[in-house]
Fold this sequence. Notes:
The chain has 2 helices and 10 strands. It is α+β, with helices and mostly antiparallel strands. The chain has one domain. Strand 4 and strand 5 form a beta hairpin. The longest helix is centred in the N-terminal third of the chain and has 14 residues. The relative contact order is 0.21. It comes from Sphingobium cyanobacteriorum. This is Lipoprotein.
Amino acid sequence: MRAWMLLPSLLLVACTGSYQPRPLTDRQAAELDKALAGKVAGEKVSCINRAPQTSLTVISGNVLLYKVSRKLVYKNELIGSCSGLTYGDTMIVRSFGAQMCRGDFTTTANLQTGMQTGACALGDFIPYRTPRP
Length: 133
């Protein structure tokens, strides 16, 4: 049997294990607190628009922030860990259409070496908004 034929089975086994995210370091927690300061969490959503003005901030190998505007930031806790993100690797999201959704498969790659460094999936998106005065 060819090794590539085993890939779907291996992915299924990896997804059914019990993943425990690493706790944030003090520095990462401080960066997250600073980025979300003055904002209030809303109800989680499964998908967000893939807007060209959205910027990505990596907090840790499993926590990302998508900044839409000064008043709106989405926090995403990845399913699995893309540890390469904390080392400056590039995130590649495989999604369909104009939205990124929970479960969209994500890999990280080192663009200098061309090597894939991690694999995970997007989690729910939690909106953080600046409250109206």
